[in-house]
Amino acid sequence: MSLAEPQGITARQGWGVVALAAAALLCWLVFAVWPAWLSDLLISKKAFVSALLNGLTLSGLYFLVASGFTLIFGLMRNVNLAHGSLYLLGAYVGYEVASRTGFWLIGVAAGFAVGTLVGLALQVLVFRRLEGDDLRQTLVSIGISIVAADLMLAVWSGATYQILTPAWLDGAVTLPVISVVKSDGTLVFLKYPFYRLIVLAAAVVIGIGLWLGLNRTRVGMIIRAGVDDREMLSASGVNVHRVFALVFALGAGLAGFAGVVGGSALSVAPGEDVRYLLTSLVVVIVGGLGSIPGAAIGALLIGLAEQVGLVYFPTYGIALTFVIMVVTLAVRPQGLMGGRR
Amino acid sequence: MTAPYAALALALLVFPAIASDFFLTQIGGYSLIWGMLALSLMVLAGYGGMVSLAQITVAGVAGYSVAIFGENATGIMGFGWPWGIVVPVAVALAAVASALIGWIAVRTTGIYTIMITLAVATATFYFTQQNAEIFNGFSGLSGLRAPVIWGVSLRDPLPFYYLCLGAAVLSFAAVLYGARSTFGLTLQAIRDNPRRMAAVGYDVTAHKVFAWALAGVIAGVAGVLLVWFNGRISPGTIGVGAAINVLIIAVIGGLRHPIGPFLGAVVVVLMQTFAIDIVGADRFNTLIGLVFLSIVFVSPDGLLGLWARYAPRMQQEPLR
After folding, report:
1. A72 touches chain B (CB under 8 A)
2. Quick one: which of A33, A271, B63, B291 could link to B233 by a disulfide (CB 3.0–4.6 Å)?
3. How far apart are CA A89 and CA A104, in angstroms?
4. What does the alpha-carbon distance between residue B33 and residue B37 come to, in Å, rounded to a whole number?
5. Helices and strands, number each (H, E), in chain B
6. Domains and CATH numbers, chain B
7. Does pTM surpass 0.90?
8. Across the interface, do B130 and A282 touch by the CB < 8 Å criterion?
9. DSSP class of residue B236?
10. Per-residue pLDDT tens digits for A142-170
């Protein structure tokens, strides 16, 4: 009897088959012309695919915010509850710069820059003094978020702003997805805002960039080593404080960047800081703290759940987010991609 | 320790004799309610090592229960049960909700607890805001009246003050007693070394969840008092601002002793009421945020910590 004797399907193969079947079903749902009973069940194909696409776009945005949050936590054990404030600040500054210069891209750059600078200042002036004291760092970040929210309210008042996207990003594109077949046989294709697809693409590109940066560069190697054991990293001669400052600046910059990008797709108003803080929290709880792929998976789950929930059970949509979080914690307390700590 | 307690009790009992109605409810009653909310956090944080941001959510469960099972003026829900049933049901539901939140939160430790409870609090806030069928969405449920017993309306300043005082003293005494009970000592031992306690044979999770349920009772009672005070409950009552407010009060007062939360509540409520004259109503949050930040930086144990640090120096005999 050889050890390599086949023993039926392994669990891994089984899950692979399930995943393939799910992917095939999804492809069919998106590309096929729906039979009437399915339209009755899921409102309409247009509603379903739009919810899916909206969910994906939102996931992209959530990923941008949450990836910074998860990196900062993973490396510094610093739960920065002022992360949502960085998002909102980036959005406001981006709005000011974009509307004064007339160039949207300068606004985006300004959002990133202001996030980076404020993040750097926070790390060097505040969090470095409280190193190793998780609880106090968290409390301080709460205090900062309260003051920041109030000061932003003082400067920009309670009004809702919309950052205008440039003409080359406006308009809708026609997707190769048939939404309905009219009675005379003409096909109606689904249209979707071009800008939202760009947001999604940007999130994917940045996500891949982050992953490559973390896994294929020297700095990334240092950061990963710091996530696993920062004392050892420090002992082997790396200036941990510089790494901390770099990661904090990058994470905060991403939040500011996401603020401008998100403020162009949705809107900028007080309270958005709390919303993005909540999603960052849930995304990293579900995905696992300190993991970029985890943040991507978490963002995908939460973004899709939120938008699909909004369409199909409007008054209970948020409950879905709850359920996802609780189930994850019950099954895998460290998060889907989190290591044992 | 008995003499200061007696003095404090006497001061609180005769407070109505010198205070106006405004001071009695807006400062006295309100501070006691927030003190109880912060006390429920102090129980978890001080004795259990679990810092929760969901205490206002637990109070909200009790508050919404009062509105849903009792009477309200919005025409949504409002089963009209008598208050003698509504109040115990509301407090019990709060305890159950607290235990559930605790059961979720204790699956992880330390700093994760803050994150999870904040996520629960925020998600509950958005849920009540989004849901029109049960919670009436953004505007919430209003027209809640405190019961009238033997012709005395509990919402009148004097009865309401004594009601709050009674509830606060009861919970304070219960916490003091509980901390020295077998359960309380076990909980503190678990806080200090969970692995050793598990190895000795204690069920760590069960003790922590039970602590959550007990804290939920205190928060639930505070929640009932809070809706009687406001006469209404809406998502804003249990929002993130309120959740953080509880934490601020507890931290400013100090998490080492059950008197801390009440001290913090008095300070914060006084600031809330009178800082408006100094910084204006609009910038109050900046002020309280800065006070909170300086307390966290200067004295992690809050005002109690400051007292503990400076009191011994004052008692020292000067060198001759």
Report:
1. no
2. B63
3. 16
4. 6
5. 15, 4
6. 29-304 (1.10.3470)
7. no
8. no
9. G
10. 889 989 988 888 888 878 888 888 877 77
Per-residue pLDDT averaged across B82-110, rounded? Answer: 87
Closest in A79, A143, A282 to B296, CB measured: A143
Residue of B nearest to A144 (CA): B289
Residue A341: is its pLDDT beyond 50? no
Q: Give the residue-averaged pLDDT of B35-59.
A: 90
Q: Six-digit token pair at A67?
A: 């990836």
- Cβ pair A296, A207 in contact under 8 A: yes
B58, B117, B246, B237: which is closest to A322 by C-alpha? B117
Question: Please, which residues 180-239 of chain A have a Cβ atom closer than 8 Å to chain B?
Answer: none
For helices B204-230 and B30-42, angle between their N-to-C axes, nearest 10 degrees: 170
The residues near B91 (Cβ < 8 Å, ≥ 6 apart) are B62, B217, B220, B221, B224
Mean pLDDT of B315-320: 61
Distance from C-alpha of B279 to C-alpha of A48, rounded to nearest angstrom: 51
Rounded average pLDDT over A19-35: 78
Check residues A203 and B281 and name the one with the higher pLDDT.
A203
Please compute the mean of the pLDDT values over residues B174-185 and round it to a whole number.
Answer: 91
- Inform me whether the pLDDT recorded for A96 exceeds 80: yes
What pLDDT score was predicted for residue A7? 62
Q: Are A178 and A118 a contacting pair, CB within 8 Å?
A: no
Q: Cβ B111–A274 below 8 Å, yes or no?
A: no
Domains in chain A: boundaries: 46-270
CB contact under 8 A, A143 and B300: no
- In chain A, the N- to C-terminal Cα span, in Å, equals 40
In the three-class reduction of DSSP (H, G, I as helix; E, B as strand; rest coil), residue B20 is classed as coil
Distances (CA, A) of B266 to A202, B37, B273: 50, 13, 11
Rounded to the nearest 5°, which phi and psi values hold at B231? 75, 5
Strand partners, A189: A178
CA distance B21 to B28: 10
Tell me if B61 sits within 8 A of B99, measured CB to CB: no
pLDDT at A61 over 70: yes
